[in-house]
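agent> Task received from the user: take the single chain below, predict its 3D structure, and emit C-alpha cells. No templates, no multimer pairing.
agent> Plan: (1) validate residues, (2) run structure prediction, (3) serialize to C-alpha cells, (4) report one or two observations.
agent> Step 1 OK, no nonstandard residues flagged.
tool_call: predict_structure(input=
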Amino acid sequence: MPAATSLPITTHPALVRARELLRAADGDVLALQARLSEIPAPTGAESRRAAALADLLREAGLAQVRQDATGNVVGRVRPGEEPAVVIAAHLDTVFGPSVNVAVQRDGPRLLGPGISDNARGLAALVGLARATVGAAWDTERPIVFAATVGEEGEGDLKGIKGLLAPGGVAACAVIALDGAGLTRIVHRALGSRRFRATFTGPGGHSWAAYGVPNPAHAAGRFAAGLPDLPRPAAPRSACSAVRVQGGTGLNSIPQTVLVDVDVRSEDPAILGDLEAGLRALAGRAADEENRRRAAGTPALRGEIEVIGDRPPGATPETDPLVAAAVLATRALGAEPELTVASTDANVPIARGIPGIALGAGGQAGDTHLTTEWYDNTGGPEGLLRALLVLAAAAGLR
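)
tool_result: status=success, residues=397
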C-alpha cells in the first residue's frame, strides 16, 4: 500500500457502489446492532453470538466462513493467497451471564449493556461485508473478515492472538472496529500486564490463632504500596490493584488472599520496571508480616504470577494505513485524533504488522456500564470511513 496525500479511490465505481449500499442499509445495520447486543457474550462464552455472526457473514456472501480453533469467526471476500488485510471486531462484552442485555430505545438512543462496545463494531463488520461483496470488489490483496473472541479483560486478546498465530491468517494489515466514534484513530497500543499476588499463611480462628501471619495484612501492605512504585512522568503509566479476594468468615484469619494488579504503559521498559517493583513489594509485604508473627507460628508466603499480557507498540503516523485513516476521516469532514488504547490492534502492532483501531461511527457513552448507550448520529459516516480505509489498504483495482 503506497503512501498517499489523497485518496484517488474515492471515485472508483466499486467504491461508489459500496458506499451507496452502506447508506441504504443504515437502518438495517442499526437494527442488527440491537439484535446482536441482545445475544449474551461474556468473555469466554461467546459461542451463541459467534454462531450468529457466522450465519450473517455467510448470508453476506463471504467465502470459506468458519470458526477457527480459538473460536473466532473468519470469512473472506474471495478465496485468495495471503497476506491479507484483516478487518475485525470483537465478539465479547465485559458483562457476566446474569446481566440483562435487553436493548431499549430512548428517543434517538439505544440503551443496553454492550450496545456500543462492541455490538456497533460487529454490526459494522457485517455491513461492510455486505457492501464489499455486493459491489463486487476486486482487490490486490485479499480481505479477511474476523469476529474475535476474548478481547475484553481476562480474555487477554486471546482471539486476535490465535487468529494471527502460525497456522492462522497471514496479515499485511489489521483494522479493528471497536465501539463508536468518527475521529479516533488508535495507532499506539497501550500495553497491559496483569499480575496476581497470592499471600498464603496457616490461617485459623481470629482469636485463638491470633499471632499467626495474616495474608490479609500482607495483601493490604502490598496494595497500599502500589501507587508509590517509582515510574517516570512520561509516557503515562499506571499500576492499580483491581481486585482483592480471600477469607472465609468474620471470625477466621484467611489462609489465602489474592490481589490482582493491572499495570499499563506504552513503553515496554516501564512495564518491566513496574513488574520488578511489584515483585519486590510483594516480598517486602510478606517479610513485614512474618516479622510480626508469634514465635513458633509458620511463615507466610507471597508469590506473583502473570495472568495477562497485552503487548505495547505503535504503528507510525507515517505508515500508509494510518495515513489512509487520517485522509478518510478528513474526507468525511471530521478532524482525526491519533491516540492510544488497548484493543485487538495491540497484537498485530506488537508483531510488526501495521494495525489500527477505529470507532464505527455514531456517539456512545457509559461504556462498560449497564447504562451504556448509542446514538446513531454520524453512524453512516463511521462505516464509510472504515470502507475507505479498507479499500486503500486492500488496493481496490
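agent> Step 4: summary for the user.
The chain has two domains: 8-190+312-394, 191-310.
agent> Done.
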